Amino acid sequence: MNGQVRADIRAGLEVDIVLKQDQASGKLTHGTVKDILTNSPRHPHGIKVRLTSGQVGRVKQITS
Prior knowledge:
Structural class: mainly beta
Number of strands: 4
Pfam family, one: DUF2196
Protein name: YwbE family protein
Shape: globular
Helix content: under 10%
Distance between the termini: 10 Å
Number of domains: 1
InterPro entries: DUF2196
């Protein structure tokens, strides 16, 4: 799953996100979803989430 559909994402999932400052390099950050921040059902760049660590980024891959 590529993280573009909001219905596929829920709190507690393990995901890889790209942080705003890492968008140019494409570096991924692994973590657990705490909150879903995107309200629309789909987003072409990935659903924006907050991880339990407090980091915010767009989901690129669901790993769990």
